[in-house]
């Protein structure tokens, strides 16, 4: 028998004036998942999270948590933890007092509070800073304290709205792994919101990509990265080339052409099929120059620019049909701008997009 999802969003609609932030939105989150909403500003991800928290109300639709309808339930009775971009630590309190704040609100006995605070500080690696003033901490340390405060009452689900965006890159990368490790150790369901692709891919069990208040794809991180369904998802992840291909014939032997080469189309098509199809090709799947020789599909392209990025080098190329693509390698494979170079590709790495 299939278990009930921990969180169910059912046909949620929400507008602010003419702006649509949730458009007939439905989705489920399972117990113990690290689930991430990913999308650009204005896609509706934070608004939907705030509706789950009870800070906004949907215009229509329902939200069910543990099988219970949350309509009319105030935020403080939803048994959810919250962690925002601004950590909002209490400046007049110590680290331990900040972590204990929610425990006092739940009227936990004093001895039990001390034990729980100690456990949480050990969990975040700050056992030696219990008596330190919260305002004297670094940004990364403040983030850890805010997380410990949110987890201390042991919520079944923690809502996190871009909590790492204010940190510098080095600390942010460290905290991505730390958050995932803490989520695994506690077993708490994390419902995470971000616009950062790396965060979503690094930490999540599943990722929902949002655009215009709709979920355009929900999948495991590896699949959503390598097998995007739409142009929007493909464009959203760095390093993905999206090119137009022309459908040359229909029926069981359908094929498309782009960049001067032909590629079999997966599955038969009808006479009314769209003549232009979008293809997604990861830049790291393209090989330039001598590296192209071992791959079954060969294109020719003009080298327009070479961009050194430290660990990788981008080769910016123009195909014979005028479309531009980027091939990423670990070293320079061609140097002479304006030179026509061979480009190799494994056809199985090409993704046919739905729109």
UniProtKB/TrEMBL annotation:
Query: Which UniProt keywords are given for this protein, alphabetically ordered?
Result: ATP-binding, Cell inner membrane, Cell membrane, Membrane, Nucleotide-binding, Transport
Q: Matching Pfam families, A to Z?
A: ABC_tran, TOBE_2
| Entry keyword annotation includes Oxidoreductase | no
Q: Which GO terms describe its biological process?
A: putrescine transport
- Cellular-component GO terms for this entry: ATP-binding cassette (ABC) transporter complex
| Domain of life according to the entry | Bacteria
Residue ranges occupied by any ABC transporter domain in the UniProt entry:
7-237
- What InterPro entries does its record include? AAA+_ATPase, ABC_SmlMolc_Importer, ABC_transporter-like_ATP-bd, ABC_transporter-like_CS, Mo/tungstate-bd_C_term_dom, P-loop_NTPase, Transp-assoc_OB_typ2
Q: Does the keyword Metal-binding apply?
A: no
Q: Name one GO molecular function term.
A: transmembrane transporter activity
- Kindly provide the name given to this protein in its UniProt entry: Spermidine/putrescine import ATP-binding protein PotA
Organism of origin is: Pararobbsia alpina
Its organism's taxonomic lineage begins at: Bacteria, Pseudomonadati, Pseudomonadota, Betaproteobacteria, Burkholderiales
